[in-house]
Design a protein that fits this description.
The complex is a heterodimer of chains A (741) and B (81). Chain A has 741 residues and is of the alpha+beta class. Chain A has a domain of 234 residues: Phosphoribosyl-aminoimidazole Synthetase, Chain A, domain 2 (Alpha-Beta Complex), CATH 3.90.650. The longest helix of chain A has 21 residues. About 2% of the residues of chain A have low confidence. The relative contact order of chain B is 0.34. Chain B has one domain: 2-Layer Sandwich (Mth169, Chain: A). Chain B has 81 residues and is an alpha+beta fold. Chain B has a 3-stranded antiparallel sheet, with helices on one face. The chains are: A alpha+beta (741), B alpha+beta (81).
């Protein structure tokens, strides 16, 4: 097929185009024609189709995500909010932190290793793009049942990919989640969070202001990665002789990324860029249109200048390629020599591909022929917006009406069996098999990582200022009540920050859902966003950005609604944190917060194949008082240890605590068959020295305080049940080794 | 006795970081002949006697399951007498 230029598009307005194969609806195609006043060229069609996709345009979620702006918290800490590559938060002492989560779910199902690896690579570049040095990653993961054959294919690949890429970059992996549920079997969730640090003055934005400034592409060469979708265009180009099918899979090279990070940071330090954008989803289409619309709109790009790994690529493919490890910068002509010099020093391929103009169109040429001539905003920001129909799905009324009463263990023997079963079940079992594949301590600033409640990193080596990050989602509760589920996940992530004594500061999120074309899924999504926006407003935490991943389903069956909420907190001295467990005998154990008997959505109910009931109602006012108590308890040195209760309830928490330093505990609880397994939110187990009990009672205020027992011994003793720590440890640690080792 | 050889290469359109690294190292050592390098792997599997069609089918299956990742790699099975 001959090159399709703007001139040809004008001459042959009626040429039929494969818009439907590219995922565009007839009305969207008509809208493109209306914007341009002619049919798009095939290159323009490629750009619009990929930029107007759900993934890039947020066309189904936009109307709901607006709430994060409408209900925004006035926060002095928020330096850059939603809309940029990642939000930026002020943590004091001149430091700013940027953090964000993204999903790489679908690629990780097709090719687990490379999918997960490039997921890490992508989020790291997002953080770098803000001008920050990436310092740590976390990975909330969800898979099908642990004993399913496909989980054995997907999980080891994903873990190895996260580790392989992250370790090569020298980024500490400070936590995450591994959760199993049958709804993720054909659609695992691979979310990746990255944290970066910078000084306030170093913030960089994606804009291309200033006519005459140069557009520079640097990093890896462009190949045919991740352009499976555009093969409908490619196939016409190559007839039957060429490489007919382009791969949907991208392969990353972490060593190139590492060099790219160092090269970029040196470029930033010398203030050589006006604007910067990484090339992720939608590649050059996205980077050029977003940079141009971030400025005055005018930009000229000579696409034939793009260095290629595969010389047979067509212009449409180059525009859509998702080759990894590439960045696009806007540079003043006076600074270009130094820019090129730094790239040369780092051995990074760099090419000037265009310049900013004083017009308002993005013009792309191919060997002198004009192949794209569009207003860039229409590509990057003015995509279609859908108010998709939403309706409460029928299952809600049905499952909410169910009364959940799993069998309650009564005798000491039954209780022992239940504690061991919970310690060993894949969702609660020790995750060292996973986290030992990640480098947790590289760079030497990791203060906390798995199995602590949150990951914690020292930011300043002199003042010991640090940040803590936790990610949480409780899909079981979100399934029963997505509004409360989102609030509960927000509360849990905040609590996980606070148990160490850090103060929650800002929120990010990765919202994983089924198809937005299903009104029931859309309702789950809308309720989740409403819950998160209300919850963040109530707790005074700004939402700094996030990511939406739709179409997570197998056939007609959607995944459980899985809003992964990330919370970032700050701690003024990491050395003074409250640890998650006790390291000596003779401490008193207390439960903060009150328990009820609602087993809905609990791991104990899940183990008995029960999924119904009513989710708890989030009491964020009380959560905030609990958080204040935890932070205060650290600064006043009341707590010797504090550990959150969440999935698995008291039994999971106390198991993790006694195994951490191999110090047992003797506790007494009413009705242990219920108390051990119920998952009432807003609870924390704390250990205090006997002399501090008075201070604890005074500080607790109206937070209910229940005496549990004392630390010591080499067994976990609950009422008349005693389990040796060795037996408990074997149950807790053997699971992953047995399944995947 | 026969040796069955399975040669695995990344598909041509897939990035090959190892090949790129080798390609960059060659000129540094004074070898200037290479335009590009791609690196693969080779398995030599020894069996008793000549392979039966059934064995060949099994080897094909093993190649597609374990030796190669067909999502990003191609493989060729040959028999050495």
């Amino acid at each position: 097929m001959a090159l399709d230029t703007v001139a040809i598009a004008r001459q042959n307005p009626d040429t039929s185009q494969p818009f439907a194969e590219l995922g565009l609806k007839p009305d969207e195609y008509a809208r493109i024609k209306e914007i341009l006043g002619r049919r798009p060229t095939s290159s323009e069609l490629a750009m619009y189709s990929v930029m107007w996709s759900e993934h890039c345009s947020y066309k189904s979620s936009k109307v709901h995500l607006k709430q994060f702006g409408d209900k925004a918290v006035k926060s002095d800490a928020l330096l850059v909010g939603i809309g940029e590559n990642a939000g930026v938060v002020d943590i004091g002492q001149g430091y700013a932190i940027t953090f964000k989560i993204e999903s790489h779910n679908h690629p990780s199902f097709i090719e687990p290793y490379q999918g997960a690896a490039t997921g890490i690579g992508g989020i790291v570049r997002d953080i770098l793009t803000m001008g920050a040095r990436p310092i740590a990653v976390m990975d909330p993961l969800r898979f099908g049942p642990a004993d399913a054959a496909d989980t054995r294919r997907v999980l080891p690949g994903v873990i190895a990919g996260v580790g392989g890429y992250g370790n090569c970059l020298g980024l500490a992996n400070i936590g995450g989640e591994v959760v199993f549920d049958e709804t993720y079997l054909g659609n695992p969730l691979v979310n990746a969070l990255c944290v970066g640090v910078m000084k306030h003055s170093d913030i960089k934005l994606a804009k291309a202001a200033g006519a005459g400034n140069l557009v520079v592409l640097y990093g890896a060469k462009t190949g045919g990665d991740g352009i499976g979708g555009v093969s409908v265009l490619a196939s016409e180009t190559f007839e039957s002789t060429g490489p007919a099918k382009r791969p949907a899979v991208q392969v990353g090279d972490p060593f190139v990324e590492k060099v790219l990070i160092e090269c970029s940071l040196e470029i930033f330090a010398e203030d050589l860029v006006v604007g910067i954008q990484d090339l992720g989803g939608a590649g050059l289409s996205c980077a050029t249109s977003e940079l141009a619309s971030g400025g005055s709109g005018g930009m000229k790009v000579a696409l034939d200048q793009v260095p290629l790994r595969d010389a047979t690529l067509s212009p449409e493919e180059i525009l859509m390629s998702e080759s990894q490890e590439r960045m696009c910068a806007v540079v003043e002509p006076g600074k270009i020599d130094r820019f090129l010099e730094i790239c040369k020093k780092w051995d990074v391929t760099v090419t000037v591909i265009g310049e900013v103009t004083d017009g308002d169109h993005l013009e792309i040429t191919w060997h002198g022929e004009l192949i794209v001539d569009v207003p860039p905003r229409t590509v990057a920001h003015d995509g279609p917006v859908y108010s998709r129909p939403l309706a409460e799905p029928a299952y809600i009324a049905r499952v909410n009406a169910e009364v959940i009463s799993p069998p309650i263990p009564k005798t000491p023997i039954e209780i022992k069996a239940a504690i061991l079963q919970m310690a060993a079940t894949p969702n609660l079992a020790d995750k060292s098999w996973v986290t030992n594949q990640y480098d947790r301590y590289v760079q030497g600033n990791t203060v906390q990582s798995q199995p602590d409640d949150s990951g914690m990193i020292r930011i300043d080596e002199k003042t010991h200022l640090g940040v803590a990050v936790a990610t949480d989602a409780n899909a079981n509760w979100s399934y029963l009540n997505p509004y409360e589920g989102a609030k509960l996940a927000l509360a849990e992530a905040s609590r996980n920050i606070a148990t160490a004594g850090a103060k929650p500061l800002a929120v990010t999120n990765c919202l994983n859902f089924g198809s937005p074309e299903d009104p029931g899924v859309m309702w789950q999504f809308a309720e989740t966003v409403r819950g998160l926006a209300d919850g963040s407003l109530e707790m005074g935490l700004p939402v700094t950005g996030g990511n939406v991943s739709f179409y997570n389903q197998t056939g007609d069956v959607a995944i459980l609604p899985t809003p992964v909420i990330g919370v970032l907190g700050v701690i003024d001295d990491v050395r003074m944190r409250t640890p998650m467990s006790f390291d000596r005998a003779g401490l008193d154990l207390y439960l903060l917060g009150s328990s009820d008997s609602n087993m809905s959505g609990s791991e104990w109910a899940y183990l008995h194949k029960m999924r119904g009931g009513q989710a708890p109602k989030a009491d964020l006012q009380r959560e905030m008082r609990l958080i204040d108590l935890l932070v205060k308890g650290r600064t006043e040195k009341i707590f010797s240890a504090a550990h959150d209760l969440s999935q698995g309830g008291l039994t999971a928490t106390i198991t993790e605590m006694v195994l951490r330093h191999h110090i047992g505990a003797i506790i007494t609880v009413d009705d242990p068959g219920v108390t051990l397994f119920v998952e009432t939110p807003g609870r924390v187990v704390v250990a205090v020295e006997p002399g501090k009990v008075g201070a604890l009672k005074k500080a607790a205020g109206d937070i209910p305080l229940t005496y549990l027992g004392v630390t010591g011994g080499d067994a976990l003793v609950v009422n008349e049940t005693s389990i040796s720590l060795d037996e408990l440890r074997t149950a807790h640690t053997a699971t992953f080794e047995k399944l995947f080792g | 006795m026969a040796i069955i050889v399975v040669e695995v290469m990344l598909k041509p359109e897939i990035l090959d970081p190892q090949g790129v690294a080798v390609g960059a190292a060659l000129p540094r050592l004074g070898f200037t002949f290479a335009k590009s390098v791609r690196q693969g792997k080779r398995f030599e599997i020894e069996i008793d006697g000549q392979p039966t069609p059934q064995q060949m089918a099994e080897i094909e299956k093993a190649a597609a399951t374990l030796l190669a990742n067909p999502v990003i790699e191609t493989y060729v099975v040959t028999v050495q007498a």
